[in-house]
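Whether sequence alone determines local backbone shape is best considered at the level of individual chains. The sequence in question and its structure tokens are set out directly beneath this paragraph.

===
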Amino acid sequence: MHNQIHSEGAVRHAEKRRRGTCEFANRIARISLETYQSAVPESHRKVQKQTCVAAIVASFQEVARIRSINDEPNRSDRLQHTEDTISSYEKLQVMGLGVGTKFLSAHTLQDELQYCTPYGNRIRDSHAEVLARRAFKRQLLEEIWADLQGASFKVNNDYIPILERVGPNQYDNNETSDESKVTQNTSKRLRSGFIADHDKNIRYKLKDGVTLHFYASSAPCGNATLKKFVKMEKEVFDMSLGPNQWPQQLHSSIAAHSLRLGQFALLVKKDGSTKSDNAEEQVDYTVPPQHLKTANMQQKTPRAKTWPYHNDDAWCPPSCSIANFNKGTIHSCSDKICRWNCLGMQGSLLMILLEDPLYMTTLTVGRKFSRAICQRAVCCRAEGFQSRNGASKYRLNHPALMETNVYMDETGTHSMEGIKAIGQDASFDSSNSCWVWWPVKASHFGCAECIDGKTGFVINHDDTAVTPPLLSGVSTSSMLEMLRCIGLSHISSTLSLEELMNLKRKTSPDYQAAKDDLIRHRVFQEWCCRYR
């Protein structure tokens, strides 16, 4: 690790000055940070000024296009209709928000396995990006539940559902005239597993004109913060783009000239509780997961000499290590976002109810943004990914990458006196409190849910533990229970890891086939079963 020596009294801004890409990126950042400020108590925000915030935002671009068509002179009737719907057309809507920088230690995960507690009770990874995606998934389940109940979905007067049904209507013709009867009969069918067992054609998709946009207040941990192997350039703000427009970027292929030095390497979040000197416990990254082995698969022969980047993790970004080095078991956010850009942000179990995977259209980053590095980290290193076995709906997605000049903390400074390791001058609060928010959560309880990032359970807002342990609404177990409520009666909310993997393989075979194809990719083959 390289060090820098700073003079006495040296300070730096908590957030370096930056130019940004366009006004749309700033709008995404503003609405995300406004939600953060309204959802997380001020007492915590004052202490956690340099935490990480992430959000998934829905944009209703189609409405804006219709408005421009109808906005014609001498057409007062059509213009009046347009004015009534402008708020919908230009709307940005936060679908899920995450705040945090913590994750479970390897010892906690080992204890969970040792005592055979159900997998998914705890939130394993409480980094902001992961929590935002979990909140997004929970909100989608809430929308689907409301629709299958036959009830109108209302969080508040401003919320607009982003999904629409593309399968057959589950109500009989003689039911639709009586709303109470619709709800009663539908609930009875849901309880009996009607949706899951008798009408597998019911599916949902994004409404026309709705796009999804990811925001991160800082570059995702892992490869996106590895400032090597590429030339970095500052952003130039594009004044030609309107507030509802984002750049149309073509991602050119990246020359894989430094693979042996870790150019595309998968990284894990460094865990101080683990050791790296026990070679017997290390996992051989050359061995494919058991379910990927086939009779005609040629056995890999171990390399006579490992690539240099496998020898140590001194070259890694701060807080990260290499996979299978016994310094962590949870993959970096860069790795996870890259995977989401191959398989979608919805995950496996939601594909039971969705027509197509849901991909981000743009990714907006605040601190530490470099377009070239971000491009490599979140999508382009997966070049060559192609799903087979009939799972052609899965593809490599290349989102537009944008920087925002909207700051999360404009006034703070950090002392830089003395010797500082390059990249380790960020100052995150020592509190274990992490936060997750989704629109339905806000409508019921008003503010975000507080999670202890070191236990994975919900805690009180004063950081005291809840007894007995309370599961988060975005935990795997909670969302499995939500699927049971929707009508997938064969799903249990208390499963072991092996049972959960078998359930996913049975209920979402196309997704799992695409996932298997991804694991065969030259980069993702190091994502062994132990880290999924």
Q: What stands out?
A: The longest helix spans residues 128-148. The chain is about 30% helix and 15% strand. The two ends are 29 Å apart (CA to CA). The longest strand covers residues 210-218.
